[in-house]
Amino acid sequence: MTSIKHNNRDLSEEEYLEVQHQHIDKSKVGDNIYIKQENLKEVYQKLFGPSLADYNAKQKRKDRVIEDYYQHVKKSKTLDLQREFIVGIGNKQDWDGLKPEGKKIVGQMLATYVEEFQKRHPNLYIYNAAVHLDEKGHPHAHFNVVPLATGYKNGLAIQPSFKKALQNAGYIEKGRYQLKAFKDGEVKVLEGMLKQLGVKRKLIGTNDIKDMHEYKDMIQQVNQEKEHLLSQIDVERSQRLSESRKLQERINALKNTESVLEGKIEALEDEIEEMEQKALESHDRVLKRLERDFDVIVQEMSAQLPGTSQSEQDIAFVKELGYEGVDDLVLKNQTLSAIVNHYRQVLQEVKTIFHDLNIVNAFKKAKEVWDKIKVFQEPRLDAGVKERLARVKNQVLGRPDPFKRRLEDVIAAAKREQVRQTRKDFESKISKRDHNGPSL
Fold first, then answer.
1. CA geometry: angle at 417 spanning 414 and 419, to 5°?
2. SS3 call for 91
3. Residue 294: count of CB within 10 angstroms of its CB
4. I need a surface site. Which of 40, 82, 189, 329 has the fewest CB within 10 A?
5. Where are the domains of the chain?
6. Percent of the chain as helix, strand, coil, to the nearest 5
7. What mean pLDDT is predicted for residues 240-261?
8. By C-alpha distance, which of 34, 87, 35, 106 is closest to 221?
9. Regarding the domain delimited by 3-205, which CATH topology (the fold level of the hierarchy) does it fall under?
């Protein structure tokens, strides 16, 4: 695994504090040598774009067309997306007692080595390279390559295979001997460059020195790979833990919000129930008061009308209530007709007033109606008319107090209408409130 951000020191202040970057001396970052920095995806487009276009043009089946070659190689188990080389001179003990200027000289030599490496191996395209002089220990170079191999019968004409790229370059050895031969050649190049600086390679052991060097080099690369891998794992773990904590905090916040909303909804329901109860109690009190006041009006009317008018009342209400058997001859009398019409008008005004309970001054209007009755002047009646009225009265008396019962029916109907209208208004208000949502 490689870390281009680490190699290029493209790190934030927080990232410099992470464990995998604590070996970097920030005061010496400016001494590093950055040779090349290209975007890997753009490099793939440049290196394999023409070959990919030729390949796709030959395909007759859509499922064989490759849209994104970078992603295609990334998922492949046989191709190499890229390779990283780490080349260092000496070890930590060698450099602990030397002056910083010595590191810079070797750093320049490593930069030259990388540039010449590209010339020697054009089929190993270097897209990123840096020489680090800001770490404790020996100076070293990181350079990443994309292998370019040819000679394929299937797929693209050019493909990223490190093994086949070495074969194209003449390294035909089998297995691990191919990589060994390649590394031996590069070690000789480094030895020659060191000799020019007056530095000799330290030999350890005898005939197996190359194998030992290869072994140490491989161990170094393995350790570097391990370090980078562990660093990536730590970063990934930290990110996952951070995301998990944020998610849990979000869940807890939502639960708290849910609890608050449930409490407010419950409070609103209690408030609505209380409002409804108070409204019903209020209207009940109003209607009861209406009944009491109306009884008073009826009593006032009965008490203040002349005694002789009871017969005329009976005739009017008998006609209004639809009783049969009333003597039409009596009703045809002009004087009595005037009385009947007058009472019918009074009753109609009463019904109109008490069917419209939204009129605030209903009682006042009712009182005015009864005042008209009080000042009404009844005509004189002869004995014959009075006798006929008495007969009608006897027929009506079979149903006690019809006038008051009629008014009570009016009040009951008004009460039902008032309750119905109150509920309708209340439900409309609640529906509107639900539509707009509770104010939380």
1. 110
2. coil
3. 21
4. 329
5. 3-205, 274-398
6. 70, 5, 25
7. 86
8. 87
9. BirA Bifunctional Protein; domain 2 (3.30.930)
